[in-house]
Amino acid sequence: MGKINYFDIIFPEECSVYHPGNIVNGHVRLELLEEIRVKGVWIQFWGRAYFKETDSSSSDTGSNFGAEDATETYYYFNMKLYETGSTIPDGLTQTDEEWQLDAGTHTFPFEFLLPNVPSSFRGNRGYVSHSAKAIIKRPGKSDFRLEKDFNVIKPLDLNTLPKANESVKNQIIKQPNIFCCRSGPVTAFLGVDKLGYSPGELIGLNVEISNHSEKEVLGSNVKLYMHVLYHGKLTQGTEVQTLSCVNHPSIPPGETDVWSGDTMLVPPLSPSNLEVVVLLRMILNEVSSSVTSQSALIHLCEQY
């Protein structure tokens, strides 16, 4: 873009994140080294979701035969910031067929109402994105285009979740076999104080593992997972991300490990009704066989 020194979509610095119902405003800024002729300046806004239905792990078997990548458009706006016949902004002069933008700096303000849409999200197999695209249309020449994403967060009020403040607990019992003989059990208790958390909060871990067997428990850990479920036209896809992990050392026979003061930080995630799972894993023998216990489906929300 030899005649253009600078071309950008500018959002207010204080508006790094938008919520549904907010006014998205800003301006398109254009700095020209020379004059150019234009048909007009437009800005487009859209929100869309994408899911890659064809997965390399299953494509070899042909299980996704006929599958296509799934897309959904939540909204689309095409706003004319300037076009032939409209009021002439400062710095523009009119000819019979197009406008002339003189050398220098030009700004084109915009604003639109953001509808009720989902939060921005990006995973390994799909995303929800919100974008703006500025277009400078020129007569007889290719257009100048610039695309820029902006972040949207749809708040989730924990008060709308009846069980958000309820505690939850689970217990598992494992009966190891030692040289084909029955041994005493290994029992584990896992609990959390509540089901609703905000990013940045600490999850208090209530864990007690009693080793009544004759074999050493090689270790234990608690992991925080996020499970993402994608819905396509023909298939569904899942994605599991490990968000956090807390490890504890081995437990000799006849000993008990009581976790005291252990916490797990909820990382920054897009607030939504995401189901995040807390799992306890015990390593029971040298080949690292394990047993897991799901304690809770934890809902994440924006902190008010």
Automatic annotation (TrEMBL):
Residues 7-159 form the Arrestin-like N-terminal domain. One of its GO terms (cellular component) is cytoplasm. It comes from the Eukaryota. InterPro entries: Arrestin-like_C, Arrestin-like_N, Arrestin_C-like, Arrestin_domain-protein, Ig_E-set. One of its GO terms (biological process) is protein transport. Residues 183-273 form the Arrestin C-terminal-like domain. PANTHER family: ARRESTIN DOMAIN CONTAINING PROTEIN, FI21816P1. Belongs to the arrestin family. This is Arrestin domain-containing protein 3. It comes from Octopus vulgaris.
